[in-house]
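Reposting from the mailing list since nobody answered there.

I have sequence plus structure tokens for a pair of proteins and want to know whether others read the tokens the same way I do. The first protein:
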Amino acid sequence: MSTLNNIKVISSDSHVLEPPDLWTSRMDSKWGDRTPKVIAGQDADHWVVDGEEMGIIGTFGASAGMRFENPGDIVREGRYEDIRKGGFDPHARMEDLQLDGVSADVLYPSFAMEMYATPDTQLLQGICSAYNDWLIEYCAAYPDKLKGIAMIAIDDDIQTGISEIRRCANQGLVGAMITVWPRPGETYDHPMYDPFWAAAQELNLPLSLHQVTNRSVPIAPDADTVVISQSGAGRVNADYWVRMSLCHMIYSGVFERYPGLNVINVENDLAWLPYFINRLDVTYIERPTQTAYRFKDGVLPSDIMRSNVHHSFQEDGIGIRDRDIIGVETLMWGSDYPHAESTFPKSREILDSILEGVSEEEKTMIVGGNCSKLYNLG
């Protein structure tokens, strides 16, 4: 018997699986063959963007539940007929939500996250806009249960990004994602981003930094087709990028200028956070020449981490153990459905395990309450 029977469970990090015609049916014809499309290869279907292969349709991204029954069948190569229907069909998704005991999903892209590596900013903006249009329609089927996160590309074209988050907010999307790390040579402490932070604050639209969304993805040496973020070592160290971006934003005073701005660290789990939070404060105190911005009224970086930064995790029991250091009010569970590492269909069983010994009040916050509050889900 689950200990969560009377608690509303909301996944703060679930995913859609983009249908193969999403961009070919929606993007302006001016993009021609540069438009994202699916090409059938010998062993797998591939996403091709601007003439470059950018993703494989594999069971990594579409095999929720397989890890519990037959993990050996989880492979990178696959075809569209292999993927879980709930990823692109909202009606099938409702059946899976009920099976998993989850009340609502906050939705991120899947294959489209890799498209953030598209070098051409205008092409990327077109990709994001078409995806957002499709996501708005997908969520409209069950608006109380499906809550979409917009894809936003900003680079140095801040005004287009601002226009897009306004449009998406007006259409019911509850948050926006930007790349976990901007273009090479750029960082989120640059003043050019201030109008974007201001707009997100005005709209009360939380901004997500999700792993595997670097603006330009580095390639592993001596392996031309292997992306670092998709290697074992890259996955283990995925939190590097969000740590750097959070440092830049906090140390440059972004959250003091925009105290209503909320940023979410997504799918990097929690256990690294106590050390990171401590190092933020130690460096701020001991290295003032390296952290020149000084906060008002004795505020420390750790205070900002508690007030403005939130964390979407999956099944990090060590992080739950250290929740008082991280801030229990900042923690939001996510299932990662329908990806291979998803907790589906055993989400409640896994939550019972990692939340053993946690008070009823804190369980309520972690499994849905914090997410509902952040996104004003009611």
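The second protein, same order (residues first, tokens after):
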Amino acid sequence: MKTVTEKLEEIEGLTERGVEYWRARDVMIVLGYDTWQRFDEAIQRAMAAFDATGEQSSHHFSGASKERETGKGPEGKDYFLSRPACYVIAMNGDPRKPEIAEAQRYFAIQTRQMEQIHRRLADEKRVALRDRVTENTRKLGEAAKGAGVTR
């Protein structure tokens, strides 16, 4: 049986510029919602979370409509979602749904891993800078000594 993340990867789309996106109505099914109304409530909470932090939700939730399977016009409201939008929707979803609980667990683990990677990169950058300062201080001391500078 496929995980929620595997299912999300299957429905991922790419723009012509290679930017990933998901259609909200497809994500709704993967996250275990039966009705658009209930899922749209999670979307609205997620949009409010973006707006509350000063980040424009419109950068992550782009309006769209979905064609009916019969080809007779639009099915209704839909969104193109960014990866962060999917993340925040899952975090604002109903954790009693096994799919939401799984997504929340996955995103929590991914967030922690990214924090550790960023911390390790910052540590490596700090060590490299310290080594560079040490080397430049040594070279400066040698140059000063060569020029006859004494304490």
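Reply #1 (J.P.):
I read it the same way you do. The two ends are 74 Å apart (CA to CA).
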